């Protein structure tokens, strides 16, 4: 494929966005994912015993987060569009940091449910807001690359966060607190600090970035405005306003596809530490808290590498059905198989394949909706997709825990995960391969599917 020459101003502008903006927003996402999944480390390391939680109650506590998150997702993203990302993302981060800090002193099951619900309320809008924010900084041909760099924060959260959480848990007795309470305290404070920094560090648009030269600002602004005009003039109705996006069948198909991927992600994230904790009874092995943290982290480092190279291919050749469908198929097959392995090493190896599959699909998925939605429709549509997808964040941990309690093992819950990821794979192939999307008259959607070539 012939490489299109890139202007030096274009190259330097994209490089600066990649270096100066994306890592900071990824750091925010790192802290975000760590705070919402901290309960998965606390559960098998004292919290479940101290609060008297069953597997179903633990799953409900993990999942109730998403009720408040879902209710306020779309209003929060529309507020971000109205007030600007800098102020709104900073506000969200400080709010969830304060709520996360309160987990340090939770003393009852109802209190745990309440704080998880409030954490969801506080975090509502952050992830789709960050996706929307980054999408507003680069032209479409660079978007999958930028989103992949951003998404690296999610698997790296576990790679780095699991051992850090384990070290905090082992600091039992600091401030007179149990180890799992020390862990909650330690992961909450950075959210408040970075939230305050974000208020001063972020800029809402390229024209406000002090770290861009006048020529770079002019080029980025002109490119983004030109794309906005193309989307606004497109025949598809959901490029016009928010309510049209919410009625779009295409948006709802994206949402269902995302549901299956997120179900797999959170079933893995919330119960992997518990499954690893069960190795002692299953295989007769023994690991201390820090070793369990390291084992939990193992699947996510290869996942980060797979995410980077898979998304790099998608950026080079254009996002295709198989960039989403193939990983979803691999995840669907591998996640139930993991529990039939005969050793801890084999189990973790298969779970690693699952993690690689899920994280390879996710950033390429998000490269699509951001390319045919604009303005308020983008805010509402992306928020709706994330909202419906994140229903899986509630359903996955609760249903996984309830089925485990009913059957006595995690085998059947993992088959449910596999079935839903299979649905996502089917939707990816059916939707992205639809011949109508290849027609130039179908809004701006073909830009997400056509080959895109650039160097640098």
From TrEMBL:
Under Gene3D superfamilies, the record lists: MFS general substrate transporter like domains (1.20.1250.20)
Q: Which gene encodes it?
A: ttuB_4
Query: Where are the bilayer-spanning segments?
Result: 21-43, 55-76, 88-107, 113-134, 146-169, 181-202, 251-277, 289-310, 322-341, 347-368, 375-398, 410-432
User: InterPro entries, per this entry?
Assistant: MFS, MFS_dom, MFS_trans_sf
Q: Where does this one sit in the cell?
A: Membrane
* Phylogenetic classification of the source organism: Bacteria, Pseudomonadati, Pseudomonadota, Betaproteobacteria, Burkholderiales
What are the Major facilitator superfamily (MFS) profile domain coordinates in residue numbering?
21-436
Q: Does the keyword Cytoplasm apply?
A: no
Keyword annotations from UniProtKB, A to Z: Membrane, Transmembrane, Transmembrane helix, Transport
| Major localisation | membrane
* Membrane topology classification: Multi-pass membrane protein
**What is this protein identified as?**
Tartrate transporter
Q: Does the keyword Protein transport apply?
A: no
Q: Name the source organism.
A: Paraburkholderia gardini
């Amino acid at each position: 494929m012939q490489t299109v020459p890139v202007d030096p101003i274009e190259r330097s502008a994209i490089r600066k966005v990649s270096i100066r903006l994306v890592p900071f927003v990824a750091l925010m996402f790192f802290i975000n994912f760590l705070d919402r999944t901290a309960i998965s480390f606390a559960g098998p390391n004292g919290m479940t015993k101290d609060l008297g939680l069953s597997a179903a109650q633990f799953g409900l506590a993990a999942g109730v987060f998403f009720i408040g998150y879902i209710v306020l997702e779309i209003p929060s993203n529309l507020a971000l569009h109205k007030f600007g990302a800098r102020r709104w993302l900073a506000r969200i981060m400080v709010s969830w940091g304060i709520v996360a800090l309160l987990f340090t002193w939770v003393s009852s099951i109802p209190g745990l449910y309440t704080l998880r619900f409030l954490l969801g309320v506080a975090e509502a809008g952050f992830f789709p807001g960050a996706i929307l924010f980054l999408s507003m900084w680069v032209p479409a041909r660079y978007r999958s690359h930028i989103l992949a760099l951003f998404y690296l924060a999610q698997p790296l959260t576990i790679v780095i966060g699991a051992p850090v959480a384990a070290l905090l848990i082992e600091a039992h007795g600091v401030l007179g607190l149990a180890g799992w309470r020390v862990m909650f305290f330690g992961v909450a404070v950075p959210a408040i600090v970075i939230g305050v920094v974000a208020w001063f560090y972020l800029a809402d648009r390229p024209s406000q970035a002090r770290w861009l030269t006048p020529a770079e600002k002019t080029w980025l602004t002109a490119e983004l405005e030109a794309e906005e005009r193309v989307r606004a003039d497109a025949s598809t109705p959901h490029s016009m306003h928010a309510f049209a996006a919410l009625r779009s069948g295409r948006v709802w198909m994206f949402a269902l596809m995302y549901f299956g991927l997120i179900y797999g992600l959170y079933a893995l994230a919330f119960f992997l530490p518990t499954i690893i904790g069960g190795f002692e009874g299953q295989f007769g092995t023994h690991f201390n808290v820090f070793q369990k943290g390291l084992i939990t982290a193992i699947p996510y480092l290869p996942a980060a590498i797979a995410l980077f190279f898979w998304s790099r291919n998608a950026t080079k050749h254009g996002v295709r059905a198989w960039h989403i469908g193939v990983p979803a198929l691999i995840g669907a097959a591998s996640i139930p198989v993991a529990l039939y392995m005969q050793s801890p090493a084999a189990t973790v190896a298969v779970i690693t394949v699952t993690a690689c599959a899920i994280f390879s699909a996710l950033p390429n998925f998000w490269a699509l909706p951001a390319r045919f939605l604009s303005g308020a429709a983008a805010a509402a549509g992306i928020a709706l997709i994330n909202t419906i997808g994140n229903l899986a964040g509630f359903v996955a941990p609760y249903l996984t825990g309830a089925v485990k309690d009913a059957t006595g093992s995690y085998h059947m819950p993992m088959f449910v995960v596999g079935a839903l990821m299979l649905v996502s794979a089917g939707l990816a192939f059916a939707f992205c391969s639809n011949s109508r999307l290849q027609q130039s008259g179908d809004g701006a959607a073909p830009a997400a599917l056509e080959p895109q070539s650039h160097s640098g």
